[in-house]
Design a protein that fits this description.
Number of strands of chain B: 2
Helix content of chain B: over 70%
Distance between the termini of chain A: 29 Å
Number of helices of chain A: 15
Strand content of chain A: under 5%
Largest sheet of chain B: 2 strands, antiparallel
Structural class of chain B: mainly alpha
Strand order of the largest sheet of chain B: 1-2
Largest sheet of chain A: 2 strands, antiparallel
Strand order of the largest sheet of chain A: 1-2
Shape of chain A: globular
Oligomer: heterodimer
Radius of gyration of chain B: 19 Å
């Protein structure tokens, strides 16, 4: 109950901020950070709870983005429909990849997801309808009232999506699914031997995780008014999602939120104040420092400090 | 494109050379990931560092191939240091590195990438030598000498590593670590020392591979990202840890990519490698030439 009250308060605050006179840049940057919260949360459902590394966040993200573009081009579908379509596409992709490779050792799943990124990118490069390699300019519709600009509206929409994603992750973590996934992570053989339906659980996690990533990708073309394969399937989405979860802490649904906010904000600040290159360096250093010195992430650090 | 056997022959010929290139860039990973189970995503980044080091030595007039060989001991030591760091951080604690190991090497790759950008800038770099830019001409076929370098490097590395792993004492010890680390420990041997030695070799080989990369074409700091997918693809296709398998998998990849390139166009080529990989993972996860 407390969780949903806080969520409601955040949603209202975000809506209020979006209709206020705050600087437009806040919404541009905030949207990206919120996207990374959704991605890190989604990634953590499979990567953190079950220990299966998805290297292909950008494939799921891109699948959602392109599904949205296709619907927008063909039918002029509204944003909400685009997001649902993105989620369904991501979930379907998750099911396909999962059923093929989740029987294998974790590392093979990781490699398979890398392959999916390249295959998706190649398919989109060769699909003229969505602009091929050069991409497609999108004429986005007017923002809905009460929002003055589209970026403000997207900021609010993404806040709601982030809350939904966290809610899903929280539900999974505390339900039988989460318990099963943790058993898979700790010892797959032992879990299987004790009657845990490991494949089914991993598939559920993969589908949910893929669906959330697809949903996160759907608003991106509208945000940029543009879509193009190379940036849509960029490694940075993968690294952001995995980095957010690892830096924040993978054991709890709160970890990816903390990690994504820290990493996302830091990246935005560094990109603006120093350069895009330094931003990559920041991610690299943070990843190494955290996995070596604080393998349980920021949440783990807090726990250690307060339990003493 | 109209099908003709001439074109097909040309595609296969170029595919063999391209395949050798893929094999050469992957063979170090075949040792570190294939045999040692270390998820070394930073392998291509280290290799590109090798390319830049070659560039520096070549600017003093050293031949790029010789430069690659000269760099090997340095990279060997570098590899040992990386493995040592990895071991102290993950393997020693007894936890399976898994997610964190991958993230660790991702971080290393990014740090190396930016170190290169800060030192050399983002511009492309090339080296020059007599055999770069000229071609061997047989009848109507023109084979660039630089691709023959890739061919040679791949064959030499594959042969050397195969012989080393099967004929020498240390080589066999490395294979033993790959097969059963616990048993080795029970025999009184120290698997960590063997593994760090093997990781050093894998990294040393990357220096030569890096030299080859800059001979074949211009390099830029972020180029390692292009290789992450392909190198893992080759190593898994090969069946983890098989050196001759790595060469064969590289060739399969090179030839099929080259044929698709010739008959369908360049934009479809990447799908081949990864489509092939997905099929292999689904049907025969131990790889084409696996144990």
């Amino acid at each position: 109950m407390k969780f949903w009250l806080v969520s409601l308060a955040i949603a209202i605050a975000s809506g209020g901020l979006a209709v206020s006179g705050a600087n437009e840049y806040l919404f541009f940057a905030g949207f990206v950070v919120l996207t990374f919260i959704v991605l890190a949360t989604a990634w953590n459902i499979l990567g953190g709870y079950a220990g299966y590394v998805n290297f292909g966040t950008s494939a799921f993200f891109g699948a959602g983005a392109y599904a949205a573009v296709v619907l927008f081009q063909a039918l002029g579908a509204p944003l909400l429909v685009q997001i649902v379509a993105g989620a369904l596409t991501g979930a379907a992709l998750g099911f396909g990849v999962g059923i093929m490779t989740l029987r294998l050792r974790g590392i093979f799943f990781a490699i398979a997801t890398v392959a999916v990124v390249f295959i998706m990118e190649t398919l989109m490069i060769n699909w003229r309808y969505v602009g091929g390699a050069t991409g497609l300019q999108l004429q986005r519709p007017e923002a809905m009232a009460p929002f003055a600009t589209y970026a403000r509206m997207l900021f609010f929409v993404m806040t709601v999506m982030a809350i939904a994603a966290v809610g899903v992750a929280r539900y999974i973590q505390t339900s039988w699914i989460g318990r099963g996934l943790r058993a898979v992570r700790d010892s797959e053989e032992a879990a299987e031997a004790n009657g845990v339906p490991t494949l089914k659980l991993k598939l559920i996690a993969c589908v949910v995780s893929g669906g959330l990533m697809g949903a996160a990708g759907a608003p991106m073309p509208m945000y940029l008014s543009f879509i193009e394969p190379a940036s849509t399937f960029n490694l940075s989405y993968t690294v952001g999602s995995l980095g957010g979860a690892i830096i924040g802490g993978m054991a709890h649904w709160g970890g990816p939120i903390v990690g994504a906010i820290l990493l996302g904000t830091l990246q935005q600040v560094v990109t603006v104040t120093i350069s895009n290159e330094m931003n990559v360096l920041v991610v690299g250093v943070l990843l190494v420092v955290f996995v070596v010195a604080a393998p349980e992430g920021i949440l783990g650090l807090f726990k250690k400090i307060f339990n003493k | 494109v109209i099908f003709s056997f001439d074109l097909l022959f040309e595609a296969v010929l170029f595919g063999v050379l391209l395949g050798c290139f893929y094999a050469a860039v992957s063979i170090g990973l075949s040792v570190s990931f294939g045999l040692l189970d270390v998820p070394n995503v930073a392998h291509p980044a280290v290799m590109i560092v090798g390319s830049y080091a070659t560039y520096v030595l070549a600017s003093y007039g050293l031949d790029p191939i010789v430069a690659g060989v000269v760099l090997m001991p340095l990279f060997f030591v570098f590899g040992i240091l990386i493995y040592r760091f990895y071991y102290e951080s993950f393997e020693k604690r007894g936890t399976e590195a898994g997610v964190r190991g991958l993230a660790f090497f991702f971080g290393i790759a990014f740090i190396l990438e930016i170190a290169l950008i800060l030192t050399f800038g983002v511009d492309q770099r090339t080296v020059s030598a007599d055999y770069i830019g000229t071609s061997l001409e047989i009848d109507d076929y023109r084979i660039p000498y630089r691709m023959l370098v890739a061919f040679g490097v791949a064959l030499v590395l594959t042969a050397a590593l195969t012989v080393y792993l099967s004929k020498t004492f240390t080589g066999r010890a490395i294979k033993a670590v790959a097969q059963d680390e616990v048993a080795l420990r029970l025999m009184g041997a120290n698997p960590v020392r063997i593994k760090q030695w093997a990781f050093g070799i894998a990294t040393g080989v990357s220096a030569v591979a890096g030299a080859m990369v800059i001979i074949v074409g211009p390099v830029e700091p972020a180029m390692d990202r292009l290789f992450i997918g392909r190198t893992f693809c080759v190593v898994v296709l090969a069946g983890l840890g098989s050196m001759t398998g790595t060469l064969a998998a590289g060739l399969i990849l090179g030839i099929s990519e080259s044929i698709v390139l010739m008959f369908l166009g360049a934009s479809w080529a990447p799908a081949v490698a990864f489509g092939l990989l997905l099929i292999v993972l689904g049907v025969r996860p131990q790889g084409l030439f696996g144990r």
